[in-house]
């Protein structure tokens, strides 16, 4: 089902009930809302956000727009953009920094709450596809399949974030 609330005499659709997670610390987060906010940025073709009631921070798998990213790389004179495979370009520190900045810019433009900000991300060169089981035939994310496919990446990001928070 859908979730909605009355606000100022108007019915406001909040999203699908299954897309809401109460993260550690108690803040409710709609991963669909966060994904939609990030996808408003032309640098991103696909984004899958992982939220957990056991962690207070969100992590994401990001599939950049190949064309937008390569154009930016050319403007920045990043030589790997001309010769390297897309997967290799995603490891260039300047590219990672640019993606991080664009995630922050998209979050700011959408006025996401602190609990809705992406704390860490993994860049993926291969788009999510229905043929690989990561999308439904209608093109919507299969969250369980994405969680299984990217479990190692998500676990690694969450471990790094926990290590940063440890005293």
From TrEMBL:
GO terms for molecular function: long-chain fatty acid-CoA ligase activity. One of its GO terms (cellular component) is endoplasmic reticulum. This is Long-chain fatty acid--CoA ligase. It comes from Chlamydomonas euryale.
């Amino acid at each position: 089902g859908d979730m909605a609330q009355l606000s100022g005499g108007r019915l406001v659709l909040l999203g699908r009930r299954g897309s809401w997670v109460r993260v550690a610390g108690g803040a409710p987060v709609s991963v669909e809302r966060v994904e939609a906010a990030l996808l408003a940025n032309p640098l991103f073709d696909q984004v899958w956000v992982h939220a957990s009631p056991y962690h207070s921070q969100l992590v994401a798998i990001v599939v950049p727009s190949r064309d937008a990213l390569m154009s930016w790389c050319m403007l920045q004179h990043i030589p790997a953009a001309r010769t390297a495979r897309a997967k290799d370009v995603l490891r260039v520190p300047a590219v990672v920094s640019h993606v991080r900045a664009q995630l922050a810019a998209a979050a700011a433009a959408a006025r996401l709450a602190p609990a809705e900000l992406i704390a860490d991300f993994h860049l993926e060169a291969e788009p999510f596809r229905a043929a690989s089981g990561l999308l439904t035939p209608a093109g919507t994310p299969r969250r369980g399949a994405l969680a299984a496919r990217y479990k190692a990446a998500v676990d690694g990001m969450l471990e790094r974030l926990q290590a940063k928070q440890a005293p």
